[in-house]
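Suppose a classmate hands you a notebook page containing two proteins, each written out with its sequence and a corresponding row of structure tokens. How would you begin to make sense of it? This section walks through that situation. The first entry is reproduced here exactly as it would appear on such a page.
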Amino acid sequence: MSQLTNPVQPTIIGEPEVVEDAATAATATDHAASATTATAGTATAGTGTTGTDLAAHPAWLDLKAAATALQQHQSKDGSVADAADHGDARARVDTIRASIRALAPLFAHDADYLEALDRDFARWATAGFGVPDFLDSLVAFQPQRARQNGVRHLVVFPMVTQNGSPDRLVEAVIVEVIWPQFVADLEAGAYSNALFVPIRFLDFTPGYDTNSAVLFPETVAMREIPAFTWGAIFADREAARFRRVVREAASVTRLDLPVDAAALLDDQRLAEETFVLWDLIHDRTHMRGDLPFDPFMIKQRMPFFLYSLEELRCDLTAYREAVRLARDEQTDAVTRERATLVQYAVLFDRVFRFALTGSRVRNYDGLGGQLLFAWLHQHRVLHWTDTRLTIDWDDVPDVVMALGAQIDELYWRSIDRPKVAHWLAAYALVSSTVTPHPASRWATGDLPLDGPPKLLTDAVMDDEFPLSMFYEALAKKLAPVIESTEGITGATG
């Protein structure tokens, strides 16, 4: 979702995605050949320089320390409001600029961006540290043009970090692109997504020592909104927290894992590639299908269970396509293996991590996990018997895809319905599987249907669909593990 965490709302929500549109996809295609040539010799960001070397580079350490110190002077909007702090802020910016210049030869493919970044920092300091404007450097940063495995980027912006800092502080991160050949082949064919950039952490400032797993252009401080041309997701963080949480969940529930699912939990790189495939298909789904609304739901206030269904729709589309790829005899062995693992990833991440992550205040990703679990249980392919979780693996794909088909049917029919009728139908779909709160006005039908839609949204309880007794018990065991994943990376997980 292209939604930022509400600064006063502690709920951890699903990460935003990027999907292609006709204009930006065409632009990206035009650059494809030149980008491949330009990055062929720079896939490791400097001859003989490893990711560990970069994270320990003196110039990077100076930059990281200066940015962290500068954050202490910044206000919520990114400005340095107190003139008494300007002297120290200027010294920190001077260090940042010098560090960027020292590191620039290691990122020759980003030369235009790094030069624009230096100018933006200089202008901000000269103008007296008002609300920062880094539009020029943001427009110059085009990582989607260099999607090649191992390409690295130094990224420095005043920005918020979703599920991290709600304030626009100067953050810095060194990232590495994850672009295995099988993903490149799929993206070049039936699963085009020209804006999607999967990455892993090499090092970062405090805004990313959090639950944030995205690097997204709309989070940057800028004077106007350009056409966004990329969006990056940290697949290594997604994979690492998945592996830690699901390993513990399987132990607590005494779930016997298939051999390939167990291998997924033991291999970080395999898990990263699995999540890249999942995200590739999930992201593009927001712009595809019978959509009764803006797929990003930007500036639309609606009951949170609508967001639950949209995110779950995209995940179940990824699941369905993974089943298709795995069953297709024409699929190559590597893609077939990763497609099989995507099915485990969607199932386990949704059922175990999503359902129990964050607060119970309008937690739409949590509700999506609850819905998937209850659907599997009520269709008798998931069993909780004698305090042990068992799953009928051969029957799971068809049952999961049946839920996806129900959501697709809801969307298809809703195009002909008024907004409120769509909301009521969506609630009926969810509440037919997940039990609402006994005090719910939505459940009893005591709703102001003759008023504006806002009144219906206000009538939704903060925790409209409370956790079941199973999840309440499981949360006591998993909550500490989920909390321990804050700041996790592929290297630390």
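The notebook's second entry, a different protein, reads as follows.
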Amino acid sequence: MISVANHSLFKWKHYQSDIILLTVRWYLRYNLSFRDLVEMMEERGLSMAHTTIMRWVHQYGPEMDKRIRRQLKKTNDSWRVDETYIKVKGQWMYLYRAVDSEGNTIDFYLSKTRDHKAAKRFFKKALRSFHVSMPRVITVDKNPAYPIAIEELKNEKKMPVGIQVRKVKYLNNVIEQDHRFIKKRVRSMLGLKSFHTATYILSGIEVMHMIKKKQVHQGVKSAQNQKEFIHKLFGLAS
């Protein structure tokens, strides 16, 4: 059963909301293709096109990201910031990511460019997140764009003047390790076809990664808990 507030999210869909969320969750969490999911659903007696599942992922991945924000535990004030490369339609794009010193995801941002303007947009997005603490210290790599972006945000009074910026490579090991889950999932896909679809899919992958890292207030310790939590996010009765 779906609450009235969430009814429009699944309106006119040919399949039940729990089936839609199942395929979306599995695609974002595991190394499955859309065609793998078509076969798995056929075993359940359900016939659907791989393009149908793709549209669901594009629609409900970003919706999951939006809904999970208020459910996340507060991060600490020691940020680790780095960018990694994601290939979109044959071209390399830049996925900016930040975690705290305990490895909890702060935020992420896909950009076509790697400069101080992109870094500044990423920081501004991160600072708007409900679960994020204002940074006391930000550890970055040798990318010169980060100090410039941080200085501009200080001048605009978007960041405290006393923030310490560190360039200590070994301290960023925690985020470089964290990139691996995202990269592994993206690598198994058949290629991201456009910048917009890449942002939709990446937002869903990041959500599933945060749930896996137990960043939500409710105890999500198993796949069953994960399913129940996502159903609650969308107002589905258990």
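A careful reader of the second entry would note: The longest helix spans residues 50-68.
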